[in-house]
Amino acid sequence: MTVIKNLIRPSHLINMDDIIREGNPTLRAVAKEVTFPLSDENIILGEKMLEFLKNSQDPVTAEKMGLRGGIGLAAPQLDISRRIIAVLLPNPEDENGNPPAEAYALREVMYNPKIVSHSVQDAALGEGEGCLSVDRVVPGYVIRHARVTVEYFDKNGEKHRIKLKGYKSIVVQHEIDHINGILFYDRINEKEPFAVKEGLLIIE
After folding, report:
1. Tell me: the pLDDT tens digits for 159-176?
2. Which of 18, 41, 170, 203 is most buried by a 10 A CB count?
3. Domain 3-202 coded CATH 3.90.45.10
4. Does 145 belong to an annotated binding site?
5. Dihedral of CA 49/161/179/62: which sign?
6. Record-annotated residues binding Fe cation (predicted)?
7. Is the pTM here over 0.85, yes or no?
8. Torsion of CA 21, 25, 28, 32, to 10 degrees
9. Is residue 63 annotated as a catalytic residue, yes or no?
């Protein structure tokens, strides 16, 4: 059975065993664009990727399935070299611990996403970044664009253009890097991992 046929079986839930780790050449390849209209295979794969993220964010399900929490996943991480990413970014509770009016700040499967413009200003997460395909902590600021405009297609073949800033911008850039064969630590300054250039926005 091929990798994708296994992943899209109705009974299969994507788990940590499906996610390839650094050293696997698929993570370093530039993924191929998908064609439209999308095949059922690509639509189901996108839905399964989103389902994995939802399961990974649910404490009970995540513990039961042994999942690391994730907010983004790219098809190459499943050993499928296609330009498909899924992002599931929950909104935080308010200061009183009440659930947000909208559960997610961003919930999308993006086909053939690309950055079409970006800010001059750079940004990095104060706590650094992690990755489901990297089982070690790599300390340092991962330098990215503070704001990006992204174009992508949804599963119906409709084109979207969205402007992102802050945390959302960082998450989507991380996933787009995956379809271009780039891992987050490629963007850390090796000699000075926590060097701060003038104008760098640190997002806490």
Report:
1. 999 999 999 999 999 999
2. 170
3. yes
4. no
5. negative
6. 131, 174, 178
7. yes
8. -110
9. no
